[in-house]
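Need residues for this backbone.
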């Protein structure tokens, strides 16, 4: 959608109806302000959808890079990348924080519950983009501690020890986190919605005078 073209077309239509230039400029400015407000609202909604997908996939990196290009009215990332894979993550050093010493003094150990991770209720932020990104990134960071934040299950405990190989024991597998299709679909829907809304707004001003 060429917004300037649509506003210029509105201006010409109003002039063809014999309205004075001062009145025409006021009407066009009012239409422009209404369009900008609608665009902001739908861009924010699109941003929230993408952030929620980032949260679902535990990708703080994607969320922190995400923003709306106000010229294109599209979701983009700082790097231009939409794929944020995570390499294998050794968890043993983290799990052994505050571990207990073994009786023979040969190392430390910690009993880890490995049941179903407890689910924290999600909060929906209604703040601006930076607040959304900060809130959701903090939630993701907390989720990384899920090995210590699990539902107790007496039949599901494992022991982590300093004698285990950190490169093979307690390692989170690599994860593919490609948001290309998600962002592409959100942007396509955003573009279609804004195009339709702009046309409707311009038409309403054309027909209203």
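Answer:
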């Amino acid at each position: 959608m060429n917004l300037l073209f649509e506003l210029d077309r509105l201006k010409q239509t109003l002039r063809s109806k014999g309205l004075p230039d001062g009145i025409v400029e006021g009407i066009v400015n009012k239409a422009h302000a209404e369009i900008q407000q609608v665009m902001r609202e739908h861009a924010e909604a699109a941003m929230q959808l993408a952030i929620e997908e980032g949260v679902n996939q535990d990708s703080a990196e994607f969320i922190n890079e995400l923003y709306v290009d106000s010229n294109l009215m599209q979701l983009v990332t700082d790097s231009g990348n939409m794929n944020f894979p995570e390499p294998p993550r050794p968890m043993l050093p983290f799990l052994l924080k505050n571990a207990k010493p073994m009786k023979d003094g040969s190392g430390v150990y910690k009993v880890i519950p490995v049941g179903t991770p407890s689910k924290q209720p999600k909060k929906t932020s209604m703040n601006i983009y930076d607040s959304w990104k900060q809130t959701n990134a903090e939630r993701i960071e907390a989720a990384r501690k899920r090995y210590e934040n699990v539902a107790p299950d007496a039949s599901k405990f494992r022991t982590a020890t300093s004698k285990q190989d950190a490169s093979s024991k307690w390692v989170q597998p690599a994860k593919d986190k490609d948001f290309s299709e998600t962002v592409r679909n959100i942007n396509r829907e955003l573009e279609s919605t804004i195009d339709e809304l702009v046309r409707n707004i311009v038409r309403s001003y054309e027909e209203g005078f």
